[in-house]
Amino acid sequence: xxxxxxxxxxxxxxxxxxxxxxxxxxxxxxxxxxxxxxxxxxxxxxxxxxxxxxxxxxxxxxxxxxxxxxxxxxxxxxxxxxxxxxxxxxxxxxxxxxxxxxxxxxxxxxxxxxxxxxxxxxxxxxxxxxxxxxxxxxxxxxxxxxxxxxxxxxxxxxxxxxxxxxxxxxxxxxxxxxxxxxxxxxxxxxxxxxxxxxxxxxxxxxxxxxxxxxxxxxxxxxxxxxxxxxxxxxxxxxxxxxxxxxxxxxxxxxxxxxxxxxxxxxxxxxxxxxxxxxxxxxxxxxxxxxx
Length: 291
Fold this sequence. Notes:
Layout: H1 7-16, E1 19-21, E2 33-37, E3 41-45, H2 47-51, H3 57-68, H4 72-81, E4 84-86, E5 98-102, E6 111-113, H5 115-119, H6 125-135, H7 140-149, E7 153-154, E8 169-172, E9 178-181, H8 183-187, H9 193-198, H10 214-234, H11 253-261, H12 275-280, H13 282-290
Antiparallel strand pairs: 1-2, 2-3, 4-5, 5-6, 7-8, 8-9
Helix pairs in contact: 11-13
């Protein structure tokens, strides 16, 4: 077992390595001592580690990083090999963003990137977009043939075709509708939206139930207003139709019957518009059935 140092000796050893004691107690070599680094503050370490040349861990990491740090000239050469102009006058580390200009996209101005990304093959954002776009691009003659073979006329020229995802291709369908789409959507079967609406309306729709009857067409503009205006005004108490509150009509059966009698006989047939009258007033239902 080695000789135990006195507190005075420990202080001299610690200070000779550039540190200061943060305590007045020394309990032996097996107990870490609280020390103060001038640059990074308080840390703990055993005396024999100090004697063997160890010290502040943060200072140690900085030394390692500095030994591995790339020179500004080397980093600048990495940018130049990719066709970029490095604008930074100082290289800090591989994770600090650095300003640069792409020679191909000078009009886009200054961009920023870290050295690690340059080392891994990344670079100008706009150059990357172009590479992806070119991968997604189909020969324009094949694009034209796809539209033509389906009876469509492509109105856009080759310069306007960017890639398969951009919805800027102008076309005319066999029925004369003009719209825009992307080649990818057209290839997947998406066609003219106008024709789609026309082919799914009226009798062509799977929910078609016969359309509007003559009676519905005659009653719609008058009966709905008559119901809301007169019911709201004469209900007990008066109500606001838009409020959704339930209310009842105080009209007599004779009022409702006279209204229905004012309609042409040939228009009287089953219709949802007069269900409320036939349910509430038996004589109205009897009149409609009789005629």
